[in-house]
Amino acid sequence: MKFQNRRLASLAAAALVTSLALTACGGDDESGSSDAGGSGGGDGTTVTFIPKNLGNPYFDTSNAGGKEAVDEFGGSYEEVGPAEGSPDGQVQYINTATQQGRNALVVSANDPDALCDAIGEAMDADIKVVTYDADTNPDCRDIFVNQADSAGIAKAQVDLIAEQIGDEGQIAFLSAAANATNQNEWIDLMNEEIEANHPDIEVVDTVYGDDDDQKSFDATAALLQKHPDLKGIVSPTTVGIAAAARYLSTSDAKGKVALTGLGTPNQMREYVEDGTVTAFALWNPADLGYLAAWTAKALADGDIEGEGDSFEAGRLGDYTVGEDNVVLLGDPFVFDKSNIGDFDF
Amino acid sequence: MSDTAVRPSAASPVSRVLNDLLRSRELAVAVVLVLLVAVTTLNSSSFLFGSTGWRDLLLTPSMLVLLAVGQTCVLITRNVDLSVGSTLGLTAYLTGRLFIDTNLPIVVVVLAGILMGAVLGLVNGVLVAWGRVPALVITLGTMYIYRGAFLTWAGSDRINADDMPSTFRNLGTESVLGIPVLTIVAVVVLAVVGYYLRTAGGGRELYAIGSDPDAAALYGLKVRRRILFAFVLSGALAGLAGVVSAARFGTVSSSVGTGVEFEAVGAAVIGGVAIFGGSGTVWGAALGAFLLVTINRALPVLGISDFWQQAVVGALIVAAIILDRVLVRRQEKALVAARDTPAGSTSPGPPTATPVVAGASPSTSGTQEAVR
Lengths: 345, 372
Hints:
The structure holds 2 protein chains of 2 kinds.
Chain A: H1 2-27, E1 46-50, H2 57-72, E2 76-79, H3 87-100, E3 104-107, H4 116-124, E4 128-132, E5 143-146, H5 150-164, E6 169-175, H6 181-197, E7 201-208, H7 213-226, E8 230-235, H8 238-249, E9 258-261, H9 265-273, E10 279-282, H10 285-300, E11 310-312, E12 318-320, E13 326-328, E14 333-336
Chain B: H1 13-23, H2 25-43, H3 51-59, H4 62-76, H5 84-101, H6 106-131, H7 135-154, H8 166-171, E1 175-176, E2 179-180, H9 181-199, H10 201-211, H11 213-218, H12 223-249, H13 260-270, H14 282-301, H15 306-340, H16 362-370
């Protein structure tokens, strides 16, 4: 019996070591890279981008836009961040950037509160802090660059589906979870927009895929069966639209039922190219990073301070700081066959 | 050890088979399934007759059938495998990664997925068979470990449709003679495992082990090796299901397969597999899987809200367990009555050697009785 126990113990140890090794090899490959080090002693504005996590294609795209802007205005660009999206991980990078005396930080916050102390120290050291993609509490940063507002998101999707089904017929929503705040708000706004401006479009159903591939897939199948006259589906969630597209592309409703919503180009490329989906919306993360970088420069140069101030953001044109010190990127970006090849996120 | 219990039934083989069939859980589940499909089809004819509807009816359950078959083999030995959902997720992601990172042919990728599932199942099997810790705890642990490894490996990365070759993705929807390829795969697996469990010595030993593990060990059965085998099989089938999932859904994110282990256990229980081992068939489990999936697809078509679907599934599982208890009690009574009547007298009642629980074949109950 003793012998057996020892054998068991060694087995358990082996299992533990294996799991540790597994964890390790996944974890360490992406942490803490940086493109350019040191503080800029020269003329250019030094900007540090801190995304939620590194190795995330969405932020890779976004920060590429940021780098483009920084290069345009001749500043020095740096990207640092945790390998996993956690607020603790971001704090240390904010602290480091503060010690280096960068001119501006551009942060996508993993938590609205947890970063405030670190950001406060940075602002005390006269570093300008811009949040993008995900905001902190409004009182602990200078400006938030918002990718899109709910009304804009709702209107863009309604416009797309109206165009695709000829502004009349039955449509349905395929949402995420039944209690998902964002999706519910967008769906309410879309309903209002349809009622107000598209009298011939009838919303016949709202189903929930819980942001689960299989459930969204089955929900799409059920929608098509339950409503034989369905003309279109709007899925304001990236998982839902991809699952619905996958189902449609292999069903006899392909080409008969239009599908649009919010999706990412990598997920949707296949279905746009095979004709299942004509066009879908999302903000352009590259433009978001680009605008955030220009906002940081305008702040660092003292061109803007808060609400009401205007500045110029390179190729995107002029922007004005809005309520709560928020800069709105603009209407969602529409992806279709002609431009989807340009994106990789 | 009385030999009355192993005495062959006095009833004729035909009436015995018919009797078994009529009492079997499999038939009950099949009837419910047929009714469900019929009612739904009356409501929306394309559910059965539309080409997509017909395909979905057969195709959608195939993934869960694979998992339920594996789970049944484990449940029969009085164990449980809760890690299958995480195993499925890991192999689905492995499948996608192999297509992205290598140029391996599809067959090799499929085999790699099955192999990885088998290895993960082997870990479970070794820990359960040699650790003498309940499988519930071990596989609950490996469920989290495998999921954690998956999250670490995949991170926020996901496999998209255009990462995988279209010939592979087409496997997810293609049909041969009106039957989807994935359904054929599931049915072949079902047939092979079903045949093995019913006729092969190794398969019968799984039942014996589940009926009474200590007695099985005393009898000289290779308990550990059999349990190990059951877990490896379950893992391998979960691996295959992962590949199937990748082919069918065309995307793999780090949440794939979350919670599917409970569906697999639920399918087996609904299909008459006893959670305490020793009885049940993969046919029943497969029908259970079919029913579970079809309910989830049919309720929305019937206009029953999402919110009720889970409750219906739960009620079905509870009903299955209660039915089990009732059947077992009734048969225990019948067996007691049979024992109390003097041997040799021709009792007009049911044959004495009817299985203790519906679904188990006579030889199981023989073992079961012999070791009591």
